[in-house]
């Protein structure tokens, strides 16, 4: 095909929905479908690249607006991608985080440009015959470790049959869930999504996990559901038990007040969510570990920059996730491979996705001993399955969901459910 191999000729933006489990968190419960958006970029000579991001209405509308600005962009000029995305969004920068209100302070420009950054890197890799990890500085590890992400959950969505994971509403249920996750994926660290039950119940769950899996690093993440006082009490109680305590309380100052008085390391994906947050968090020693996430830090290259800054300021680096498909897992794996400073196993919601639902062939993303081998094929190493994309897009159209709303879904079954913070 004639034309410039690196110049963008076409961008498609496709919302999709995939089945999700009733996973509980402090703002409610996951709905029966998780929403994502798949972007595909085609250059003038027909080379294609893909990216994946959130699926909410406002974000989708912004992605479409940004996509219109991208025709003619050279995929090697990612500074121009920033400029064009900024121009497309103009002053429209609030809301649309796609995370049910849990990570609200990140930059809209960063969130919108992220899937295009990934897709451009995918094309760059294909053009020169190298994997994306090489474009990020080169893989320092052949495979990337992930942690088993445990959730309190209902037995099934109301009105439907119990799902194959069943209920996990107490320590025994979580231990069973962890056992299955470890047996299936080989994870060698565990994270519990907390903020669901009173802190003492969640502390008991952590103790049960510790007793059952004495050697596995454990993390607890109540998504800022606790006051600084409660956070301090739990942090002290679990001192030496947790690898880190993630976002026990709200804000850079709240976290700093806890961090100053406990030996338990604090981590965040809520109070440091953009480069603007780094200086105050470092100055106040709010956290010891930052969870990066290319979906809201502005793409893969930005996360490499974040990693360097974490290293400079003596901060550990981990990785955050939301419900996601294979394009995101591939991107996370290339990133995880290319940041020497990655100090912890990355989060992933992968076990909470049906194996038969994806927009790429996931064969290249198999877990072994809790790790995903870094794809070595050019680009991301995964290709879009257009039939599967069409199916998941149809599912999006049919399911009726347009914005993630964990709170609204919970309130259908518990009208008294409150998201007041702190809850405890
Ligand atoms: O999937 C969830 O319910 C999580 O609570 C997610 O939305 C969070 O953003 C995330 O996993 C976290 O670590 O905060
Ligand atoms: Mg978190």
Automatic annotation (TrEMBL):
Coiled coil: none annotated. Keywords: Lyase, Magnesium, Metal-binding. Pathway: Carbohydrate acid metabolism; D-glucarate degradation; 2,5-dioxopentanoate from D-glucarate: step 1/2. CDD domains: D-glucarate_dehydratase. InterPro entries: DgoD-like, Enolase-like_C_sf, Enolase-like_N, Enolase_C-like, GlucD-like, Mandelate_racemase_C, Mandelate_racemase_N_dom. It catalyses: D-glucarate = 5-dehydro-4-deoxy-D-glucarate + H2O. It is an enzyme of class 4 (lyase). SUPFAM superfamilies: Enolase C-terminal domain-like, Enolase N-terminal domain-like. Residues 171-265 form the Mandelate racemase/muconate lactonizing enzyme C-terminal domain. The active site is at residues 193, 320. Its EC number is 4.2.1.40. It comes from the Bacteria. Transmembrane segments: none annotated. GO terms for molecular function: glucarate dehydratase activity; metal ion binding. Its cofactor is Mg(2+). Belongs to the mandelate racemase/muconate lactonizing enzyme family. GlucD subfamily. This is glucarate dehydratase. It comes from Streptomyces cadmiisoli.
């Amino acid at each position: 095909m004639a034309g410039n191999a690196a110049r963008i000729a076409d961008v498609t933006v496709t919302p999709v929905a995939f089945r999700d489990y009733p996973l509980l968190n402090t703002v409610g419960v996951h709905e029966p479908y998780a929403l994502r958006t798949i972007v595909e970029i085609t250059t003038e000579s027909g080379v294609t690249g893909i990216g994946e991001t959130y699926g909410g209405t406002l974000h989708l509308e912004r992605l479409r607006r940004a996509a219109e600005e991208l025709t003619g962009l050279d995929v090697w000029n990612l500074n121009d991608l920033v400029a064009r995305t900024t121009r497309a969004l103009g002053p429209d920068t609030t809301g649309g985080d796609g995370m049910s209100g849990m990570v609200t302070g990140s930059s809209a420009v960063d969130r919108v440009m992220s899937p295009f950054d990934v897709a451009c890197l995918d094309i760059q890799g294909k053009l020169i015959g190298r994997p994306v990890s090489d474009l990020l500085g080169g893989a320092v590890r052949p495979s990337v470790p992930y942690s088993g992400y445990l959730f309190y959950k209902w037995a099934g969505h109301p009105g439907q049959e119990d799902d194959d994971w069943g209920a996990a509403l107490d320590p025994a249920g979580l231990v069973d869930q962890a056992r299955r996750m470890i047996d299936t994926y080989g994870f060698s660290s565990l994270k519990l999504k907390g903020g669901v039950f009173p802190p003492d119940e969640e502390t008991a769950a952590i103790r049960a996990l510790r007793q059952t899996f004495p050697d596995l690093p454990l993390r607890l993440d109540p998504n800022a559901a606790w006051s600084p006082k409660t956070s301090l009490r739990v942090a002290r109680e679990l001192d030496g038990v947790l690898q880190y305590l993630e976002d026990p309380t709200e804000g850079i100052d709240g976290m700093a007040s806890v961090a100053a008085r406990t030996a338990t390391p604090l981590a965040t994906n809520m109070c440091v969510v953009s480069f603007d947050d780094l200086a105050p968090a470092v100055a106040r020693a709010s956290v010891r570990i930052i969870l990066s996430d290319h979906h809201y830090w502005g793409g893969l290259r930005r996360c490499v920059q974040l990693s360097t800054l974490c290293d400079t300021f003596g901060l550990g680096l981990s990785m955050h996730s939301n419900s996601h498909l294979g394009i995101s897992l591939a991107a996370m794996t290339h990133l995880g491979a290319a940041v020497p400073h990655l100090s912890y196993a990355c989060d992933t919601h992968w076990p909470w996705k049906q194996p038969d639902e994806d927009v790429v062939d996931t064969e290249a993303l198999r877990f072994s001993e809790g790790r995903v081998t870094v794809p070595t094929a050019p680009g991301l190493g995964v290709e879009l399955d257009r039939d599967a994309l069409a199916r998941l897009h149809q599912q999006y159209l049919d399911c009726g969901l347009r914005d993630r709303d964990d709170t609204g879904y919970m309130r259908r079954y518990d009208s008294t459910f409150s998201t007041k913070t702190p809850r405890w």
